[in-house]
Amino acid sequence: MKRECFSVSGLLNKYFDQEVTPEERSLVEDHLPDCPVCRSALQSMEDLRILIKSPVEEAVEKETFPWVWEKIERGIQREGRPGLWESLMSRLDVTPFLKKKIMIPVAAVAVALILMMVPILYEKITSYPIPSVVEYVESETYNVMIYQLENQKGTVIWLFNGPEEEVSPS
Amino acid sequence: MKRTLVFFFSISILSVLSISTALAQVQTRVRIIEASNVGSNIDSSLRDVTGQIGSLFSFSSYRLLKEETVSLQKDLPVSIAVHPGRSLELTLIKQHRKGAEVRVKIKREGSDILNTQVRLTPGRTVSIGGPKHREGTILITLALL
C-alpha cells in the first residue's frame, strides 16, 4: 500500500457517505484508479449498503402501518376535542357570573346563607331523641312520680304525699 | 365596590341576627286546670287533656282556671299566678330544632315546691299535677305552639 493510501483510506468512509470536502473528494477520486485495495474497500461498502437496503425497502413497501395512522388520528382528535369541564362551561355560559359585579353579591348571599344554616345544622347535631322528656325533677315537700302516657303524646309529673292532703292516681 | 361589600355584609349580619332572635323565642301554651270528683263537668276546651290523662286518673270534673300563651326567651323567667299563694315559673333553658328545654318551678309563698326541667316538643303535652286546690287538684299542662 502506498503512503498516499493511508491518508485516503481514512477518507473512504466519509467519501462513501458523501461527507467529504471538494478537496478530499478530488484526492480520493485521483487515488482510486491507481489503488485496487481502496477500490475493493469502497466496493465492499457498496455491497454492504445494498445488502442492508434491499430488505428494509421491501419491508416498508409491504407494510402500510395502519395502526400508526390510527394512533396519530386518535392523538389529533384528542387534542382538538375540549375537556369535560371546558365543554360544560361553554354550554352553561357562566362567564357573566364570574364578573365582579355579580360575583361579590352572590358570594355575600352565599356567606349569609351559610351563617344561617350553621345554627340549624348545629341544633340538628345536638338534638336529643324524643323519649327523654323530663331532664330532672326535685321537690323537698312532695314525692314525685312521672308517668309516660301510652300514646307517647304526653308526660305527667304527679306530686303526692305533700304537706296537704294526698291526691293519688286511681 | 366597597359600598356594595359593606351593604351586603350588613344585610347578612342583620339577617343572621333577626333569625337568631326569632329562633330564641318559644311560644308555650299554659293551661291551669282544676281536676276534681265534684260533679261531672268537663270543659269542652279540655277534651284533649281528658283524652290523654283520663285513663290515668279518675277525676270526673275538669275545669279550666286559666289559659295563657307565654313567649319564653332564654334564661328569662316568666311567672304565672296559679292561685293565691302559688305561682308557676317557666324559664327557657335551651332551644332545639325540634323543641325546647324549659325549667318549671312551682312556688308556694316564695319557696319552691317543685323544680323540674322538661323537654317540650310539638304535639306533646307535659302535665304537672298534685297540689290541692279547694275540693280538687291543680293540673298544669304545658305544650309548645
Explain the overall architecture.
The complex is a heterodimer of chains A (170) and B (145). Helices cover 60% and strands 11% of the residues of chain A. Chain A is mostly helical. Among the domains of chain A are: 3-62; 131-161, no CATH class. Chain A has a two-stranded antiparallel sheet with strand order 2-3. In chain A, helix 1 crosses helix 2 and helix 1 (3-16) packs parallel to helix 3 (36-62). Chain A starts with a helix and ends in a 10-residue tail after the last strand. The model of chain A is unreliable at 165-170 (pLDDT under 50). By secondary structure, chain B is α+β, with helices and mostly antiparallel strands. Helix content of chain B is 20%, strand content 55%. Chain B has helices at residues 2-23, 47-53, and strands spanning 25-36, 61-73, 78-83, 86-96, 99-108, 111-120, 125-133, 136-144. In chain B, the strands form 2 sheets. Chain B has a 4-stranded antiparallel beta sheet. Chain B has a 4-stranded antiparallel beta sheet with strand order 3-4-5-6, with no helix packed on it. Chains A and B meet through helix 6, strand 1 and strand 3 of A and helix 1, strand 6 and strand 7 of B.
Topology:
The complex is a heterodimer of chains A (170) and B (145).
Chain A: H1 3-16, H2 22-31, H3 36-62, H4 66-80, H5 84-92, H6 100-126, E1 134-138, E2 143-148, E3 154-160
Antiparallel strand pairs in A: 2-3
Helix pairs in contact in A: 1-2, 1-3
Chain B: H1 2-23, E1 25-36, H2 47-53, E2 61-73, E3 78-83, E4 86-96, E5 99-108, E6 111-120, E7 125-133, E8 136-144
Antiparallel strand pairs in B: 1-2, 1-8, 3-4, 4-5, 5-6, 7-8
